[in-house]
Amino acid sequence: MKAPILSMAGFAAAAGLALTGCSAGGGESAAKASCTNTIVNKEAPQVTVWAWYPAFEQIVDTFNETNDDVQVCWTNAGQGNDEYTKFSTAIESGSGAPDVIMLESEVLSSFSIRDALVDLSEYGAAEVKDNYTEGAWKDVTSGDAVYAIPVDGGPMGMIYRQDLFEKHGIAVPKTWDEFATAAQQLKDAGGEGVLTNFPTNGRAFSQALFAQNGSVPFEYDSTKPTEIGINVNDAGSKEVLEYWDSLVKKGLVTTDDAFTADYNTSLVDGTYAVYLAAAWGPGYLQGLSDADEDAVWRAAPLPQWDAAAPVQVNWGGSTFAVTSQAKDKELSAKVAKEILGTDEAWKIGVEESALFPSYTPVLESEEFAQTEYPFFGGQKVNEDVFLEAAAGYEGATFSPFQNYAYDQLTEQLYAMVQGEKDGSKALDDLQASLEQYAKEQGFTLK
Fold it and tell me: Signal sequence: where (predicted)?
């Protein structure tokens, strides 16, 4: 017997959203009790917000000081899955969720299928559509529904150690073939490290690499929530894995888990000469306390499969969604649309939080394009790399069990780098596991 899709009990456990008794509890009053910012106008209605952005309190203060009709009551309920677990608990219990919640775009379908999010097309989302890039807007929509307002994104580029490249006579690669040549050059020159790392737990990173070679892994429309198309073992993705598996087998790249303490050390001590990164990567690098002060960093476009026909991809990106538990959905939609919908708020977001905006008034400004970054020796990395990458990103469709799909991908990539199977077999096995899981959860495969 198939499990009923919208109950999603099996999905919640498998996707890392297991219920752990972390509910905020008590609905609106409990959410307000956890408010960590100053309420300027205590007579105005309050909208509760969960968000984990750095320096977000400054953004909240700016909003509250300029809005008399509504005040934001903000708390940091944890980052990523920590917050999602609490939100999942609130969904199951029917109370305890905030009015507005920060969610990564890749998990929107995972919550919309549970009737946890409000369709903002009914609350003026179309009025702000032109304020965002095409790709970012596609990431928050499904069919005609709009499940969130985009905030920041992760258009991808290549951050590299110019000093190491010059020391070993390595040219900055423009294609993946040139990238492989550079990796071999570094090894032959007796470099202490490798060109880069291919993390098996890369999740969205790996999917971005697949997408650059034409992968469209999922077909899903929230208006038909019982149907899904799965195509993760396409020829383009297999070519990507064959490429990286070859570099691994030749000892030209490492396969360390990303975002561990050891990985962070390797990023900044010269072990990796290249960091294939999203636009938030520079901020991440600068935040590492043991960074080598003598390192010379520069940014360049992500290598391409075909330099004459570049494909831009994205890694990460967050949004503001209105939850179905919001008491005043119209007022909550106003907050979702406006809290990071001004130049003043984005000045804080860019300068204090190192966010890369999906907000076109900032992206199209001369000031943003011409910003010189001391970390990159004064290079204008937005103009040189990330603005073109953001403009070229066309968006993606994510599955309603995206975390589960990522977990399964991680298992298959690990088996590949351990020599248990090749990349083609890994993706065929991934396809089979996701199809089986979808059927068990009550989906019909397209």
Answer: 1-24
Going by pLDDT thresholds of 50, 70 and 90, the confidence category of residue 237 is: very high
pLDDT of residue 288: 84
Contact by Cβ (8 Å): 139, 265: no
Per DSSP, 373 falls in state B
* Structural domains in the chain, sorted by start: 5-153+316-374 (3.40.190.10), 154-313+397-445 (3.40.190.10)
- pLDDT of the residue at 103: 98
- The packing angle between helices 235-249 and 176-188, to 10°, is 10
Give the pLDDT mean for 133-158: 97
Using one digit for the tens of pLDDT, what is the confidence trace for 420-438? 999 999 999 999 999 999 9
Distance CA 389, CA 157 (A): 8
Q: Which one-letter amino acid corresponds to residue 283?
A: G
> Token pair of 342, please?
């001004």
Please tell me the number of Cα atoms within 13 Å of 215 on its side-chain side.
Answer: 26
Q: Which of 194, 198, 228, 232 is nearest to 213 (CA)?
A: 232
Over residues 388-406, the pLDDT tens digits come to 999 999 999 999 999 999 9
Q: 245: closest CA among 194, 200, 179, 296?
A: 200
Instruction: Kindly state the tokens that stand for 190.
Output: 């007796």
List the Cα angle 204/207/211 in 5-degree steps.
Answer: 135
Q: What local confidence, expressed as pLDDT, does residue 283 receive?
A: 87
For residue 262, how many other CB atoms are within 10 A of its CB? 10
Give the helix/strand (H/E) hosting 425.
Answer: helix 423-440
* Nearest partner of 414 among 220, 223, 203, judged by Cα: 203
**What is d(CA 271, CA 197) in angstroms, rounded to the nearest whole number?**
9
Distances (CA, A) of 252 to 183, 184, 190, 331, 353: 6, 6, 12, 54, 34
Residue 288 β-bridge partners:
none
Contacts of 124 (CB under 8 A, 6+ apart): 333, 337
Q: Could you read off the pLDDT of 243-259 as tens digits, one per residue?
A: 999 999 999 999 999 99
Q: Name the CA dihedral angle for 246, 248, 253, 254, rounded to a multiple of 10 degrees.
A: 160
CA–CA distance, 236 with 298 (Å, rounded to integer): 29
Give the type of residue at 445.
L
Q: Is the distance from CB of 134 to CB of 358 less than 8 angstroms?
A: no
